Amino acid sequence: MSVVAFAPASTANVSVGFDVLGAAVAPVDGTMLGDRVLVADTQGQFNLTTVGAYAHKLPDDFTKNIVYDCYLAFEKALVAKEVATKPLTMTLEKNMPVGSGLGSSATSIVAAFVALNAFYDTPLSEHELMLLMGELEGQISGSLHYDNVAPCHFGGMQLVLDEADVVSQTLPSFDDWYFVLCYPGINISTSEARSILPAQYRRQDCLTYGRRLGGFVHACHTGQEPLAAAMLKDVIAEPYRAQLIPGFDAVRDQAAALGALATGISGSGPTVFCVLKELSQAEKLATWLGEHFIQNQDGFCHICKIDTQGARVTGTEL
């Protein structure tokens, strides 16, 4: 028996919701932007194999791979539920660049847990899975975060609550928004991007953050697209992280000239996102980004819509 699960890339923060907002994304050209994990039964010992475009960026020792930690955590959860474990092997198809700001670790974690749960005929609930996903993501980032794993798992745009046994809830999104996502090919670690942020913020910045996030959530629920777009501004991270991304100001200027509703940093960066309503303008911006923002062969640019499916089982073979 074997199961393959796919988990999509995601953009966290979306400018207005630092650490509490994230959206799963899917390229409009059909590209499967995300990681896949295969779980298969075996007669031998557990083994984890890595393949894919960015497999060479991962540790050679599979016991240092986050997917191995997912396997151990899932086995522990099965023991707690008195579910018999089975000998298995796993393969991670690593299609997401590490340190890109597109939820690379989340895609591996979510795909691993969804594949494992399907392999064992779903012994864990969606909520139990999400708690494990957040825990494993926290091992990498240093603190508990759901802003990538929640949209990656559930799809759509997720507002992280983590209160009253509710991890996140789906926000209504605008179907005609195109998200142009461009990864320049350089890496920024989450810890590096966090260390550059101030330990304390001015009261005025905190008030502005809360006002804009509240306004954005309200605008999403009431269908006020111009108001929602106007709220997509970042006073928490972008003023500090922009200096880590060469050419960010030029991207913002060019996007504005092409009619972008908003431009921001995806997660910790260096990927940037721009929101546009016209596909033709999105295509022009993507071309410009390819010529002026991408720095090496590792970089890429995709025109995306919000992925409403989230993680899913896609078959039995990679």
TrEMBL record:
It is an enzyme of class 2 (transferase). Residues 231-293 form the GHMP kinase C-terminal domain. The keyword Protease does not apply. Pathway: Amino-acid biosynthesis; L-threonine biosynthesis; L-threonine from L-aspartate: step 4/5. Keywords: Amino-acid biosynthesis, ATP-binding, Cytoplasm, Kinase, Nucleotide-binding, Threonine biosynthesis, Transferase. InterPro entries: GHMP_kinase_C_dom, GHMP_kinase_C_sf, GHMP_kinase_N_dom, GHMP_knse_ATP-bd_CS, Homoserine_kinase, Ribosomal_Su5_D2-typ_SF, Ribsml_uS5_D2-typ_fold_subgr. It is found in: Cytoplasm. Residues 65-156 form the GHMP kinase N-terminal domain. Its EC number is 2.7.1.39. GO terms for molecular function: homoserine kinase activity. ATP binds at P97, V98, G99, S100, G101, L102, G103, S104, S105, A106, T107. It catalyses: L-homoserine + ATP = O-phospho-L-homoserine + ADP + H(+). Gene3D superfamilies: 3.30.230.10, GHMP kinase, C-terminal domain (3.30.70.890). PROSITE patterns: GHMP_KINASES_ATP. Pfam families: GHMP_kinases_C, GHMP_kinases_N. Catalyzes the ATP-dependent phosphorylation of L-homoserine to L-homoserine phosphate. Belongs to the GHMP kinase family. Homoserine kinase subfamily. This is Homoserine kinase. The lineage of its organism: Bacteria, Pseudomonadati, Pseudomonadota, Gammaproteobacteria, Aeromonadales. The gene is thrB.
